Amino acid sequence: MKIERFEDIIAWQLAKELTVSIYSLFEKSNDYGFRDQIQRASISIMNNIAEGFERKTNNEFKQFLYIAKGSCGEVRSMLIIAKDLNKMSMEHYNELFNKAEIISRMLSNFIKTL
């Protein structure tokens, strides 16, 4: 199957789901620095996938996928802190952390294919 739009990329679709979940979970948090950072990191994943795809060259796309992968690591790191500081339930933590790990693996595989 040929990917014709960035919206067709499964890693982008999962990153969008992750972003929506993180925005919803932390939208009422009074820890503005934490909230803003995890929200920015999550949206960076999906936006870098989209921007890289739209560049239309494999080398540029690959570079943006590396950036998205880095943002994915940042999200996982912040989820660990959120869990340790009791800012989220273990259920939410497990769900979001697992999704972030899946996205990271998909990005690694995508990078290898390019």
Helices and strands in order:
Layout: H1 10-26, H2 32-54, H3 58-84, H4 90-113
Outline the structure in words.
It is built from 4 helices and no strands. With 114 residues, it is mainly α. Helix 1 (10-26) runs antiparallel to helix 2 and helix 1 runs antiparallel to helix 4. The protein starts with 9 loop residues before the first helix and ends with a helix. The protein has one domain (6-113): de novo design (two linked rop proteins) (Up-down Bundle), CATH 1.20.1440. It is elongated, with a radius of gyration of 14 Å. Helix content is 80%, strand content 0%. The mean pLDDT is 97. The chain has helices at 10-26, 32-54, 58-84, 90-113. The longest helix is centred in the middle third of the chain and has 27 residues, at 58-84.
Into which percent range does the helicity of residues fall?
Answer: over 70%
What Rg is obtained from the alpha carbons, in whole angstroms?
Answer: 14 Å
Major sheet, described briefly? Answer: none
- The CATH architecture classification is Up-down Bundle
Total tally of structural domains: 1
Mean pLDDT: 97
CATH class value: Mainly Alpha
CATH third-level topology? de novo design (two linked rop proteins)
Please tell me what the overall shape is: elongated
Proportion of residues in extended strands: under 5%
- How many angstroms separate the termini? 15 Å
Q: What are the low-pLDDT stretches, counting only 5+ consecutive residues below 50?
A: none
Determine the CATH superfamily: 23S rRNA-intervening sequence
Order of helices and strands: HHHH
The strand count comes to 0
- Class by helix and strand content? mainly alpha
Number of helices: 4
